[in-house]
Predict the 3D structure of the following.
Amino acid sequence: MRPRRRDFARAILRSFSIQGSWNDRTMTGPGLAHALAPLLARIHADDPAAFRQAVQRHSLAFNAHPYLAPVAIGALARLEFDGDDADTLSRFRSALRAPLGALGDGVAWAGWRPFCTSAAAIGFVLGLDALFTAGAFLVVYNAGHLALRIWGLRCGWRSGRAVASALKRAPLRRMERALVLTNQVLIGALATLLIGQLPGTGHVPWRDGGAVIVALMGYLVPRHISAVAMASLLAACAVWLL
């Protein structure tokens, strides 16, 4: 039986706890099975034994970035719905692990989270209320995070076996590069703003264009440089300019 809209909604809600039962042996496997259960229950509604076997099958070792795990949830549910055999499902699960981990680390941990953090820090330094800044950070960050989960579940369900091709066509890598690049500019601006608060450096660093120059230097920094090295370099440039 085809899953209903409320089954997908329950799967998304359960995906938030996918790491709740993480362990060294099966990692997020039990969490994946827990999130898949509403979809599996609908697909195997007429066969309780098949439902139990499917839950046991998906409780085995699995790991992926938690924000992109819904891609696996949707794709595995689609294969179950299409009637693929257990060996195919097992190989498919294994093939999804590394790509979803690497893609999620890049988009969420290296791109979206640092971007939101830098933007919030700049807002606070420029005088926004601390509670407002923290609240805005949580709202914006989690809006992107939730959108990524919902998109992932839809992408996985619609693509099924072709989910790898769908991920290649998706703009996630381009988003990651754009976010990393923008964050480098924000870090440059933040470095100038923070140093501009020090005694003797003045409180309006934008007046002489120093922050703009440092921010543009962040754009030109080689992409392979670490965040700490980049921040140190930009801070040194800010001191020199101010």
